[in-house]
Specification:
With about 350 residues, the chain is α+β, with helices and mostly antiparallel strands. The protein has 4 helices and 18 strands.
Length: about 350
């Protein structure tokens, strides 16, 4: 039996073992073998996440057990696990109960990295080498450059590189000096005032500020795609790109194309009288070939077609056909009723 060690939760490990007969000869583990994991003193077997490969790499008797030790598969921290054969035979003899390997999950190591696989660098003198972020309980903060912790913490140094050339005369101010905050404030204000009145240096970049104290924004570079921008009172001269959707009202004109509108987006009051007249004129002037194939039964389109298209009577005088604009295909027909004792044509009855 082999001990794989203390691993992190959500790790994947492999343990190999050999099965032999009473003579010591490597022999295949047979009988539909199963490997189960027993946590500590529990009798609840875990089989999820366990894969057994017999005769591993075609080597007779060599077996490999892969364990995916995730919470989803039932594994937990601060726990020992033993891998046991719960089904299987070797040379016809049951080997149920043999322990083939073990491991623990975050139970023994006193110092563990927050991220699995990370290591701590220790020099020849036994000193741990680390990049200090913050001396405190959370470790949150800005990574510091290499330096010794000592006299340097007794002073606060204003970085003249970050502030700019105008701050070249700044000096370190002892942090335990009662007037340190006043001195630093005065020096920083001196640097800011030395610049153009409307600009402040931030890490080598400039922020445009108007005389009224308003910050200028480069609309080509707004890094807030999921933030609602309030443009009330602001005129946007043009939008050259695509707009995904507009949920509010557009009071001005839209000169480009619109993909679609929601139902009832345009009501009767929204249609200009000139537009309504244009629609009516276009309908009257439009040729029959554009609409006759889609005309409803007994529609105005049928009435117009009967007035302007070819109309003919069948040879037996019983059917009147109103043709389409091609003068051959029937748009609709009317049944003709006659009577010998009355006028030759009694009625025209539209079919359809």
């Amino acid at each position: 039996m082999s001990y794989r060690g203390d691993i992190n939760l959500d790790s994947t490990i492999d343990i190999k073992f050999c099965t032999v007969t009473t003579t010591g000869a490597p022999t295949q583990l047979a009988g539909t073998p199963v490997i189960s994991a027993y946590p500590d003193n529990s009798i609840t077997q875990l089989t999820a996440g366990i894969t057994l490969t017999v005769d591993f790499d075609t080597v007779t008797g060599l077996n490999n057990v892969r364990v995916v030790a995730t919470g989803a598969n039932g594994y937990a921290t601060a726990t020992n696990y033993d891998l046991v054969i719960t089904t299987g035979t070797v040379g016809g003899t049951s080997v149920v109960g043999y322990v083939v390997g073990s491991f623990s999950i975050e139970k023994r190591s006193s110092l563990r990295p927050a991220t699995a696989g990370r290591t701590l660098v220790v020099d020849a003198s036994g000193l741990a080498d680390a990049n200090t972020v913050k001396v405190g309980p959370t470790g949150a903060g800005t990574a510091q450059t290499a330096n010794d912790i000592g006299a340097d913490v007794d002073a606060i140094l204003v970085d003249t590189i970050e502030i700019g050339v105008a701050g070249a005369g700044l000096t370190a101010v002892p942090w335990n000096n009662p007037t340190w905050n006043t001195n630093v404030k005065s020096q920083v204000e001196t640097v800011i005032n030395a610049y153009e009145p409307a600009k402040i240096s931030v890490s080598g970049r400039l922020i445009d500020v108007s005389a009224a104290g308003n910050v200028g924004i480069d609309w080509n570079n707004i890094d807030a795609p999921t933030t609602t921008q309030n443009l009330s009172g602001t005129t946007v001269s043009a939008v050259s790109g695509a707009i995904g959707s507009v949920t509010g009202n557009v009071g001005g004109n839209v000169t480009g194309s619109i993909g679609s509108l929601v139902a009832n987006a345009i009501d009767q009051a929204s249609i200009h009288s000139g537009a309504a007249a244009k629609l009516a004129d276009s309908g009257i002037q439009r040729g029959a070939s554009f609409w006759e194939n889609n005309a409803d039964n007994r529609s105005l389109a049928w009435a117009i077609s009967k007035l302007v298209n070819k109309v003919d009577l069948s040879g037996d005088g019983t059917t009147l056909s109103i043709r389409k604009s091609n003068d051959s295909t029937a748009l609709f027909t009317q049944a003709v009723t006659t009577s010998g004792g009355a006028a030759p044509v009694v009625s025209l009855d539209t079919t359809g």
